[in-house]
Design brief:
Elements (H helix, E strand, L loop, with lengths): L3 E3 L9 H9 L10 E3 L8 E5 L4 H7 L5 E6 L3 H8 L6 E3 L2 H7 L7 E4 L6 H10 L3 E5 L6 H14 L3 E4 L6 H11 L6 E8 L8 H6 L21 H5 L14 H4 L8 H5 L1 H4 L1 H6 L7 E5 L12 E7 L8 E7 L5 H4 L9 E6 L3 E4 L4 E4 L20 H11 L7 H20 L3 E2 L29
Parallel strand pairs: 3-4, 3-6, 4-5, 6-7, 7-8, 9-12
Antiparallel strand pairs: 1-2, 9-13, 10-11, 10-16, 11-12, 13-14, 14-15
């Protein structure tokens, strides 16, 4: 069984921006009170796993070198399949009961891979008990929950990581080095686009990639499969009868009650790069564009424009997100290669176009013979291994909740702007929207009876 000792917090003068600067230099930091581990990196962690299927199965497989002490899933099929790989683990269907049953001495860390609308509920109890947490992206369902989880992680002083495995790739690191070394000059504008059209679709959207079973809530209920605890699956969301259109993951995440559509899903991956490279934090304003909002289903097509203030020597920057049919002007005008998904940084000296795995400096002729800057950001051990190493040694992670919490908030704010139909003047410190207070209802949600966060 692993043990830990928490060191005193760092000086109040150590700011989040300073931590991000260290991360950009390859140091990578927790941005929270330091955690000193008293065990060898070779010792095994005692890990509880919440959510064992889908992405949960992938995350779980990365933990099999550790000691799996508890498995929890509302889907009995997933639970039994996972149990074959960890025969000594305790089984639970309800993570609340799991936390009640496990003594502090029985577990060191928790891996959360549930549906988006229960992430905060599964994560917060672990943080309050000062357990390390790996949570699949996005870490919460809404802005309010993101702030609560981020602050809880800060108070706990434990190793955290949001499950955005692209963050560990070498390409993102090389792009960050190029941007931060000034290869294209000061960046005042960035564009991010994804081709996915999951959500409430127009006929044009459906021509691209139709993955929608229905456009409206079904009137009829399907029999609940015997292996699924539907009551627990619904969790804190408003009750509705079971229907197969809600599962698996590529179905539930487009419903507002359970997820936030493409914005929070792929935004966790794609907006991560400009957030990292440009050292972004809280936007000043957010404005969205798209079809009239559906009351229950996230859109397939939309855009969101963020304005960020100056950060130290970095100038103010405009960041625009596009999904589905929408693309940046440089793409539609064929001034750049028309990659189906991508990120474009526009600097005073040039441009940088990137995807998950590749990048190019533009115009290419201008950068012929260009020598990239030295590699200052070490390659990752692997997204999961980085977190496990941090749990054991106190080493930093690069997608900790101090970084991924504000990223999650920003992504959710794009949906708040879209759903409210208003340009938002965001006051991050107080979490208020003074110019459009009616939009604040989308910052949080009401929980079903029997569910309380915190």
């Amino acid at each position: 069984m692993a043990t830990s000792q928490i060191a005193p917090p760092p000086s109040a003068g150590v700011t989040r921006r300073h931590f991000l600067q260290l991360a950009g230099a390859g140091v990578g930091v927790l941005a929270f009170p330091a955690v000193l581990r008293s065990q060898s990196p070779n010792n095994k962690l005692n890990i509880a796993v919440i959510g064992c299927g889908g992405r949960g199965g992938s995350n779980y497989n990365e933990m099999l070198g550790e000691n799996i002490v508890a498995l929890c899933d509302v889907n009995e099929q997933n639970l039994l399949a996972a149990a074959k790989k960890a025969p000594g683990a305790k089984h639970f269907r309800d993570f609340r009961k799991m936390y009640d049953a496990l003594k502090d001495s029985e577990f060191d860390a928790v891996v959360v891979s549930t549906t988006e609308h229960t992430h905060a509920f599964a994560t917060l109890p672990a943080l309050k008990r000062k357990k390390h947490v790996f949570c699949e992206k996005p870490i919460t369902r809404d802005v309010h929950e993101a702030r609560i989880v981020t602050e809880a992680a800060r108070a706990a002083g434990v190793a955290t990581q949001m499950g955005t495995q692209i963050h560990a790739g070498t390409n993102y690191r090389r792009v960050v080095e190029l941007i931060q070394s000034g290869a294209i000059g000061p960046v005042r504008e960035a564009h991010v686009w994804v081709n996915r059209t999951w959500g409430w679709q127009s006929p044009e959207d459906a021509k691209i990639y139709d993955r929608v079973s229905t456009q409206e809530r079904p009137k009829e209920a399907d029999p609940v499969p015997p292996w699924l605890d539907w009551e627990l699956w619904i969790g804190p969301a408003p009750w509705r009868p079971f229907n197969h259109i809600y599962i698996p993951g590529n179905k539930w995440y487009r419903w507002w009650d359970f997820g936030n559509g493409t914005m929070s899903d792929l935004g966790s991956h794609y907006n991560d790069l400009p957030f990292w490279a440009l050292e972004l934090d809280a936007p000043l304003t957010i404005e969205a564009n798209g079809p009239p909002p559906h009351p229950e289903i996230a859109p397939a097509t939309m855009s969101a424009t963020y304005h960020y203030g100056a950060r130290g020597s970095r100038p103010p920057v405009k960041l625009v997100w596009y999904q589905g049919q929408m693309k940046p002007p440089a793409w539609t005008e064929k001034r750049i290669p028309q990659w189906p998904d991508g990120l474009l940084f526009i600097g005073d000296k040039g441009m940088l176009l990137s995807s998950y795995t590749k990048h190019v400096l533009l115009p290419e002729k201008q950068y012929e013979g260009f020598t990239p800057p030295p590699k200052t950001i070490p390659d990752s051990l692997g997204h999961h291994k980085e977190w496990l190493h941090a749990c054991k040694t106190g080493a930093p992670t690069t997608c900790h909740f101090g970084y991924s919490g504000p990223l999650t908030e920003a992504n959710h704010l794009g949906n708040v702007a879209y759903r409210s139909g208003r340009k938002l003047e965001w006051k991050a410190k107080t979490m208020r929207i003074p110019n459009a207070p009616d939009a604040e209802r989308f910052l949080r949600r009401e929980y079903r009876a029997g569910w309380k966060l915190g």
